[in-house]
Amino acid sequence: MGLRKGLKAEDLRRCSRTLMLMRHAKTERQGPQGDRSRQLTDRGLKQARIMGRGLTALGLVPDRIICSGAPRARQTLDGMLKPLGDGPRVDYRESLYESGMQAVFDQLAQTEDRDRRVLILGHEPTMSICSQWLAEDNSDPDLLDLLNLGLPPATMVVLGSERPLTDWGTHQARLLGILGPQDLGDWPA
């Protein structure tokens, strides 16, 4: 399938808009106050740093990041932010933990035109299901099969289009690739 599960620089250049849907990094099994309070493990903290450095090295620094308000998502983003620099604007949305797919589509509908590269950091199965809904029908079947399995921790789906994100609908974006820490591990944590 190729390096970085399908992601090719020429495909990225052809898209004026890029959406990255990412699952939070590896967490503990149980939180002290239930699922919502779960924290990242040491491995999860390392995964977050790798993802931040890898995105920077690939030139995929987002203009805007929309992050779930759950502690594990916030910790993932905290680990990614230093390598991403001061560029991304960050918003936290409780709805990304509570409301599933609708919250993702609501965020897309509210995206500003200046936001050409957006990262939404949330939870499974929402991130993989939204990716399936957005991906064009003629997307790489191997990549679509990976989405059917769900996203492992700290893995992101990269989608692209020429349309503004506010206009994205079902099966209207190119599925450009799937990236995880194992694909970006060349950059030290």
Tag the structure with descriptive keywords.
alpha/beta, Rossmann fold, 8 helices, Mito_Ser/Thr_phosphatase, 38% helix, 189 residues
In short:
With about 190 residues, the protein is of the alpha/beta class. Helix content is about 40%, strand content about 20%.
Q: Can you describe what's shown?
A:
The chain is α/β, with parallel strands linked by helices. It has one domain: Rossmann fold, CATH 3.40.50.1240. The chain has 8 helices and 6 strands. Helix 6 runs antiparallel to helix 7 (141-149). The longest helix has 17 residues, at 42-58. It starts with 8 loop residues before the first helix and ends in a 5-residue tail after the last helix.
- Overall geometric form: globular
In whole angstroms, the N-to-C terminal distance is 26 Å
The largest sheet, given as strand count, sense and whether it forms a barrel, is: 6 strands, mixed
Low-confidence stretches: none
Helix content: 25-40%
Strand proportion:
15-25%
> From the coordinates shown, what is the CATH architecture?
3-Layer(aba) Sandwich
Number of domains: 1
Number of helices: 8
